[in-house]
Design a protein that fits this description.
Helix 2 packs antiparallel against helix 4. 44% of the residues lie in helices and 4% in strands. Strands 1-2 form a two-stranded antiparallel ribbon.
């Protein structure tokens, strides 16, 4: 009988494209990129001839990982760092790379206002695509019926109201103790 050796190190080739199915949520999140205004995340990332500095990761990777993590309940940067090392959706984005929790936490801290605005954009895109509606929002387990119907969002002024509702929802999430991506103190 051949014994199992759990201490044995192994190397293997992984094709990240085969880690997730075609209908996996990470692919849908990745497809959002073309529908969002990501300009606030890119200033300050530039190459300067003759200066060597640290490499910058594409901000979209941080954003996409954060959206995916929030959809799966991984709300803390340290937990996301650990989770991303083995979770297939995260490995699909990162391949053999890794983003540590300090880098992720720094990104969230540095771009807090832009991330809030992006959250509102994401909710608007999802509402327009019919993937979510804010007619019924569960807050602390209490269901609250909103005063809008599906048909009312077809009126021209409704997108502005949808944006306002998304902003209010974001503000309510931020007031909750478990409402956002954050890191543990060092």
């Amino acid at each position: 009988m051949k014994p199992v050796n759990c201490q044995q190190i192994c190397l293997r080739a992984i094709n990240p494209e085969r880690l997730v199915d075609e209908d996996h949520p990470v692919r849908a999140i990745w497809d959002l990129r073309g529908r969002l205004d990501l300009r606030p995340f890119y200033p300050g990332i530039e190459a300067v001839e003759g200066r060597r500095e640290r490499d910058f990761s594409d901000p979209w990777v941080f954003i996409a990982l954060g959206l995916y993590a929030l959809s799966r309940g991984a709300l803390e940067a340290r937990r996301l760092d650990e989770w991303a090392q083995y979770e297939p959706g995260c490995k699909w984005w990162l391949g053999p790379g890794r983003i540590n929790y300090h880098t992720l936490s720094d990104f969230v801290t540095e771009h807090g206002a832009a991330l809030d605005a992006l959250f509102v954009q994401v909710v608007q895109v999802l509402m327009k695509a019919g993937r979510v509606d804010l007619e019924r929002v569960a807050h602390d387990g209490t269901k609250i019926q909103a005063a809008a119907s599906r048909a009312s969002f077809k009126h021209p002024r409704r997108p502005a109201e949808g944006r306002r509702m998304a902003e209010e929802h974001l503000a309510a999430l931020q007031e909750q103790p478990e409402g956002g991506l954050r890191s543990h103190p060092p």
